[in-house]
Give the backbone structure.
Amino acid sequence: FQVEDRLFRVPRHTLEAQLLVFNEMFAFPPPPGVDVEGSSDEHPIVLPNLVTVEDFKRLLRVLLPTSYYGTRLSKGDHDGWISVLKLSRMWQMEELRRAVLSHLKCSAVRKNAVEKLALVLECEIQHWIVPAVNELAREPQPISVEDSQILGLETVSKVAAVRERLISESL
């Protein structure tokens, strides 16, 4: 795999077990004389710019905890687990996604309320939506234009409705 400017050699079976797309990619033998992606260092599977070297290393630390890639991520490494969560979502690694969510709790994620809600929506973490919306609705400052662009009009409208309900209940 090529991530940014770095090559990674990863055992095929590791990713085939987790990723249907890689399983399908390697299921068919290449035609004679054709170099396919992932067949050599000269023809790596190039990952999109959305994936950083650090993100990929974190994923490998979870999938292949070794002395080379490092030990498993610690429970307190929220940024690391979030990074793996995003990749597991991107590549539809449901088993890994469930495992990651067992290490993360919405209330423990160290992000501001807008970033947390954006993460919840991006990664489709259904059981975190209510706590994340409530956290943002309880913020004393109004939602900024920049935050509205991050979350989108529909989400901001829902947060505003929750905020109005909370205010009316406190009167």
Notes: Residues 153-170 form the longest helix (18 residues). The radius of gyration is 20 Å.
